[in-house]
Amino acid sequence: MLYKKERPAILMFQDGRYFRGVGFGAIKKVTGELVFNTMTGAGYNEALSDPSYQGQIVTMTHPLVGNYGVPSWEKDIYGIYKHFESDSIKVSGFVVNECCKNPNHYESVKTLDEFLREEDIPGIEWVDTRAITKILREEGVQVGLLSVFNSGEEPNIDQLKEEVKKAEDPNLRLLASEVSTKEVKIYSQPNPIGKVVVLDMGAKLNILRNFAKRRLEIIVVPYNHSYEQIMEYNPNGVFISNGPGDPAMYKRAIEVCRNLIKNNIPTFGICLGNQIIGLAAGGTSYKLKYGHRGGNKTVINTETNHCYITSQNHGFCVKDFEIGGFKEFLRNIDDQSNEGLIHESKPVFAVQFHPEACPGPLDSLYLFDKFMEVMELK
Q1: Where are the alpha helices (H) located in 166-223, listed in sequence order?
Q2: Quick check: is 1 in a domain?
Q3: Is 344 part of the annotated catalytic residue set?
Q4: How confident is the model over 237-253, as a mean pLDDT?
Q5: What is the spatial distance between Cα 277 and Cα 322, in angstroms, rounded to a whole number?
Q6: Residue of 271, 314, 328, 358 marked active site
Q7: In terms of domains, do 309 and 165 share one?
Q8: Do 11 and 151 lie in a common domain?
Q9: Is 271 a catalytic residue?
Q10: pLDDT per residue as tens digits for the range 5-35
Q11: Which of 49, 136, 211, 250 is 20 to 30 Å from 203 by CA-CA measure?
C-alpha cells in the first residue's frame, strides 16, 4: 500500500513478470538491459556515472543505497571530477531495495533522489532486489522496462506488458558512440614526462586521473578515430578504454589495435579495451550469462598464483586470442573467463577488470606503472 505522496513504480521483464514498488528520481518510462551490481552500499555515485552502464537498468544487491548522499560536481587539480566517473548519470534506470532519504556525510550536498531527479533518471525502491538478482543469475540478463508514475496515478499493467515486448536490446546500438567524447580533449600537465592517447570508448575519469598522477599529457580522442589520426599526436603509448556494448561492433577500434600491435606501439587496454585488443589479436567475443558487475570479483595470475579482488563491469568477454604471440596471464576464478592478455614480445597488454578501482590487498595500480615501463618512461 502506497502512502498518499508516494509515487507508484513498475519494473517489468520482457515476458510480463513485474515488480511493483515506490518511485524516486524522475517521473519517466525507460527500457534497457536489466543487470545487477554486487558492490557494497558504497560507490553508487561512481556506478551511476560509469559510461559502461549506458543503456542498462541497474539493480543494486546491497539493501540500502544513498546513505552518504551525493557530493558536488567538484574538480581536482587535474581538472577531473573528483567523485564521479563521467559528467552525468549514465544508467538508464536504478533499482534498489531502499533509497535513503536522510543521508549523512560532510561532502553530501543532495540526496540520491534529488540527484536522479536532476539527471532525469527514474528509480524504484521497496522491491525485492534479491528476487530480481536471482532471476538474472538463473536466466541471464535481459531487456526490461522501468516506469515511475505521478502520485495517485494507477499503472496500466497490460499496456506496459505490450510496450516491453517491443523494447530493443541496447547492445544492438553503438553504445560507445553515445558516451565517447565528441571532440579531442587534452589534459595538460606541468612538465609532463610523456604523452598518452586515450581512445575513448567510454573512459572512466579515475583512469585519466591515474595517468595524470604519473605526469602524462592525456589526449582523449573519439571512439572512431583512426590509427593515422591517433599517431599524428606522436604518443608514447595508446590506451584503449572501458565502455559499453558488444566489442565485435567496434570495427574501427579493432583495426586501430591491429595496427598498434603490428607497429609495436605501447598499448594498454582495460575492460572493453581488453576485448577489443583480444579481437584484434584474432580472438572471438561472447556474451556472459549475467556479466561481472561489482567490487568483489576474484582474479588469479596464472603464472604466479597471486589472487586479486577486483572491481568489474562488463557483459562480454574474449577467448581464443592466443595466437600471434599473445597469451592469457589473468583468469576469473569463478567461471574461468579471461581477465587479462599480454603479448610475449611486443609492448601490448590489457586487463578485463578495473585496476583503478580495485579494493584488494594486492594493489592492481601496478598495471599503470607497467604501462609506464613499456612506454620506457620509468
Answers
A1: 175-179, 205-213
A2: no
A3: no
A4: 98
A5: 12
A6: 271
A7: no
A8: yes
A9: yes
A10: 899 999 999 999 999 999 999 999 999 999 9
A11: 136
